TrEMBL record:
Annotated ranges, domain GTP-eEF1A C-terminal: 179-277
Membrane-spanning segments: none
Natural source organism: Noccaea caerulescens
Name of this protein: Elongation factor 1-alpha
Annotated GO MF terms: GTP binding; translation elongation factor activity
Keywords for the protein's UniProt record, in alphabetical order: Elongation factor, GTP-binding, Methylation, Nucleotide-binding, Protein biosynthesis
Length: 277
């Protein structure tokens, strides 16, 4: 019955039949949570295929989590990307920057720059002196780690800011963009969004005013869920491909190169207007 409902609401039928585990359980009585219940002698488990192509038999909820759910591979082999969420000067210690490593691995002693504050004419760079995580020094930081970094050699006249991305000094694969193309979903807005509309865009900890410079296509109820090329405006509940022009230095990445730095939130006031990537 559950699989039939999933298929009716749009889930791929083959995927539902082969790869969706359905476990009968009772959280209130603790049946089939961690141990096989004795109250359902007919239940022998369900056989499903994981995303990695392995066939497993799931009997309980914990069993399903351990066998079916696979930990995704951390992007340790990609270029370092660390969005900053805090910049502090601590007496007796120096400049401390905090952030979450999205991808790559870095260690104390490496030279780094902070974009988009860093430019060729006005550098913003330094060297990682030490790394701490949960008040303990660590030898390196990798994807998913929330860290504090003691950075030496920063220019007091051009310090890193919240929203900057820390990258290796030798990395030339990313810089501030003049414009970027995004696929977005318009959430709630009472009016029409036309070229020239300038909301606030957020990517991780960075934010900047973004001017809507072009609407490549849109689809929604008015278009019969078909793509309408070069439409004059966007409305609520429509999806579209648009071009934004940041009005301040702003860094984004492609979804393929760095998933977290490609996700876009568009705000007007305190409300979300669009989500996209």
């Amino acid at each position: 019955e559950i699989k039939s409902i999933l298929a009716r609401v749009g889930w791929p039928k083959k995927f539902v039949e082969t790869s969706v585990p359905v476990i009968p359980y009772s959280g209130y009585h603790g049946e089939n949570l961690t141990k096989v219940t004795d109250k359902m002698p007919w239940w022998k488990g369900c056989e499903v295929t994981t995303r990695g192509g392995k066939t497993v038999t799931c009997v309980t909820i914990v069993d399903t989590l351990e066998k079916y759910v696979e930990i995704p591979k951390r992007p340790t082999d990609k270029p370092v990307r660390v969005p900053l969420n805090g910049c502090f000067n601590i007496k007796g210690t120096g400049d401390i920057l905090t952030g979450r490593c999205e991808q790559g691995v870095f260690k104390p002693g490496i030279e780094v720059v902070f974009i988009p504050t860093h430019t060729d004419s006005n550098p913003c760079n330094g060297k990682v002196f030490s790394i701490e995580m949960h008040h303990k020094k660590v030898e390196q930081a990798g994807p998913g780690d929330n860290v504090g970094m003691n950075i030496k050699g920063l220019d007091k006249n051009n310090m890193p800011r919240v929203g900057d991305i820390m990258i290796l000094k030798s990395d030339t694969s990313i810089k501030a963009c003049k414009r970027f193309t995004a696929q977005v979903q318009v959430l709630q807005h009472p009016g029409e969004l036309k070229v020239g509309y300038t909301p606030i865009g957020c990517v991780r900890t960075a934010k900047a005013a973004l001017r809507l410079s072009k609407i490549n296509w849109k689809s929604g109820k008015e278009t019969g869920n078909q793509k309408l090329e070069n439409p004059p405006f966007l409305k609520a509940n429509e999806s579209a491909e648009v071009v934004f022009e940041p009005q301040q230095p702003f860094v984004v990445e492609t979804y393929k190169n760095c998933d977290p730095l490609s996700r876009l939130l568009v705000l007007e006031g305190n409300g979300a207007v669009m989500l996209g990537k």
